[in-house]
Amino acid sequence: MRLLLAIGLLLASMIPIAHSGVASISIYYNGTVVAHFQGITSFTIIGNNVSELRVQGSKFNLTGDVLQFYNPNSSITVTYQTSFQQGVVKGSEPFNATFNFLFPPTFTLVYVSPSPQSLKVSGNLYNLTLVGDSFNIVYAPVSKPSSPIGEEDLLILIALVVSDSVLAGLVIYLYRRGRVKRVEQPQSEPRVSNVSQEAEEEETELTQETLNDRDILVLEAFKQGAKTLSDAVKATGLPKSTVYRRIKKLVRLGYLVERREKGKIWYEVGTPHGEKSEDHTNV
């Protein structure tokens, strides 16, 4: 009996303790990374050549490619610009996280690990969701983009890519030829109500004082050299109307400054109202 009890205690000690923290990391194809944490003590930087690093909600220390948080129990947001190896996005963390990879339909997926949890259309971008402590995504540009396909179809394609490398070639071929039929919206679900609900949710976001992922993506586009509305649309891949509303919000909060001269309008990066510039060196 004592021997069985000792063996049970030994096996229990070998079982890893689940991390109680929450982590959601959004990775955009253009190199923008937006991460939200709570209960996480450290974060391993994803990508190379990090710039525009910004940490909200906690003091921090950056050692190599690891961020150490001094206030892990608070709500922490990390944003930065980075670069990836051509056609490859991968990362590894000491905790389980939800990884969101956002990419335009001009890219096709070649390999995805772990298996995707979901895929949603966000504006003109696909949002691929993975869950785990690491991820590896290989993608390639499509020379001649085909017509858009449905979410369900694309999830099936991704599952085939992950499960069988032989089928991957056929999947890519069908995707480029546009032979996959587009999923139609069920007639029982009124499209107008969905659009109205989305518009109300976006209107609520625009009145808030904090920035969400789309606000940050538009702001990063201007930090990287965009000057006009058209520049921001090309840099982010978002619809023109969405970018316009985000710009107006950023101007209202002081993140952007609107300039006008001889009928022309452009924008410059400003200083947010009531906020001082932060020192991104070790704290």
Automatic annotation (TrEMBL):
Source taxon at top rank: Archaea
What transmembrane ranges does the database entry give?
Answer: 154-175
Q: Which CDD domains match?
A: HTH_ARSR
**Record-level GO BP terms:** regulation of DNA-templated transcription
Transmembrane helix among the record's keywords?
Answer: yes
Which portions of the sequence form the region Disordered?
Answer: 185-207
**Molecular function GO labels:** DNA binding
**Compositional bias of kind Polar residues:** 185-196
Q: What is this protein called?
A: IclR-like transcriptional regulator
**Gene3D superfamilies in the record, alphabetically?**
Winged helix-like DNA-binding domain superfamily/Winged helix DNA-binding domain
Q: Which residues form the HTH iclR-type domain?
A: 217-258
- Entry keyword set: Membrane, Transmembrane, Transmembrane helix
